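Exercise 7.
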Amino acid sequence: MKRTVYKNIRDFKEQNEALQAGLPFSEDLQILASPLAVGSRTIPNRFCCQPMESCSALKDNTPDEITLRHYRGFAGGGSGLVWLEATAVLPEAKANTFQLYIDKNNLDAYKRTVEEIKKAGEEKNGAEPVVILQLTPSGRYSKPNGYPEPLVAANNPAIEKDEPLSPDRIVSDEYLDRVRDALVEAAGLAEKAGFDGADIKCCHGYLLSELMGAHTRKGRYGGSLENRSRLLLEASEGALQNAGDFIITARINAWDGLPYPWGFGVPEDGSLDFAPDEPVWVLKKLASFGMELVNITMGNPYVIPHVNRPFFKGGYEPEEHPLVSTSRILRGTALLKKRVPELKVVCSGLS
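Solution. The predicted structure, written as tokens, is:
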């Protein structure tokens, strides 16, 4: 693959056309400086710091100086929307020993975190960013004690291949009810800590995201779209009912890039085309509950990382150019926005 650094618009345009990537672009950047209202909050511009774990929490599961510096930098650098990294809602839901975890005993540290982020934005840019906390049950990627302890929605041969997980790693419907309640409770804690909003994480192969593609699962959380989306929808609706003036949002995989019946947003013919009908149905349901903002992403960074962002370096050579991957997520997000215009939409994977 030709690895290109684009030094000007002309070089980018030539590569875009040669690849038939179809990436839209403009030299008019005024839209990026415009504010956006979400509920009673105003995001001061269109730059979003996406959630990416620092993996350096203190022993009480709260942000250390490395994490704080990370977000002070983003806020001071001008991001109008700072989307704080994945924070576990149950002890066993942590993806690593040093992942953040919020509970009623450590709220003061999270209050200080929000204060520092907003202060950095105000001092450097004259405007406080809107700060959202991402809430997660890590599911397949749970590793709370330093070694894998997966909690999966269903076996997935597209990921597990010839090493299927033991059936005892598949969580029960009753456990998923508990996860739902923990997500709703954690959203309330985030509000008490001073965050502007909370994200019910449903992306990148973690538990809620995996459920969306759990066509083979039995019971209340598998099979039909209504069942597969049940945990996302019930957790979101529950959090929204308690939210008041607080933003409840979700970061959602619109396309898993895994063949049916092992993925979401793909057609039943076994191809890997983007099939938007099911994501559109889910987004419309969320909007009907009163959700105003969603964050759209695609793929699984543990399986096909080139789908998530422009990818040059890793353990394999992707079959497609990074501009093609970037175009898929941007054009897919634009399509969803067109079909669910009542939602305000963040697009992931552009940098």
